[in-house]
Design brief:
With 151 residues, the protein is an alpha+beta fold. 16% of the residues lie in helices and 46% in strands. The longest helix is centred in the N-terminal third of the chain and has 19 residues. It is globular, with a radius of gyration of 20 Å. It comes from Comamonas sediminis. Keywords: Signal. This is DUF3617 family protein.
Length: 151
């Protein structure tokens, strides 16, 4: 009887400790971000580039995911999240529209402090398409003036 109660108590304690562990989430701060953009229209694809970027608290939701509409707003007007789904604690997807110009499907995967954001954008009703990928490694520090904003 005592062995059974001890086992139940230790199993409950383990479950509480596991539940208390933080989920993988992007946190505001400095990141080394590799950006890859596909070709669009008659513009050739750009080679991947890596820059230190600052991700401010206004870009991150309470679950540790970026707001893709705010990233797209740097290039298009009237961007809004039309639909979002939390797939699990590490994955979220969105549908974003920017006026009548652009529709995008976005998906973010968090791994520890790091994340990967993939955006498939369709301009002008799909006449032109572009893929944007952001692979980010946390620098585990606050932003500095040298860190450029994520765009």
């Amino acid at each position: 009887m005592n062995a059974t109660l001890t086992w139940i108590a230790s199993a409950g304690l383990c479950a509480m400790l596991l539940a208390a562990l933080p989920a993988h989430a992007a946190q505001p701060g400095a990141f080394s971000v590799t950006e890859t953009k596909s070709a669009i229209g008659n513009k050739a694809a750009k080679p991947p580039r890596t820059k230190d970027r600052c991700i401010g608290p206004e870009l991150v939701d309470k679950e540790g995911f970026l707001y893709p509409d705010l990233i797209l707003s740097k290039h298009f007007s009237q961007c809004r999240i039309k639909d979002s789904k939390l797939l699990d604690k590490n994955n979220k997807s969105w549908t974003v529209t920017c006026g009548k110009m652009l529709t995008a499907q976005a998906k973010q995967t968090n791994t520890g402090d790091n994340f990967h954001l993939h955006i498939d954008a369709a301009l002008l009703g799909g006449a032109m398409k572009q893929t944007l990928d952001y692979e980010a490694q946390s620098l585990k520090r606050q932003c500095t003036p040298e860190d450029e904003p994520l765009e």
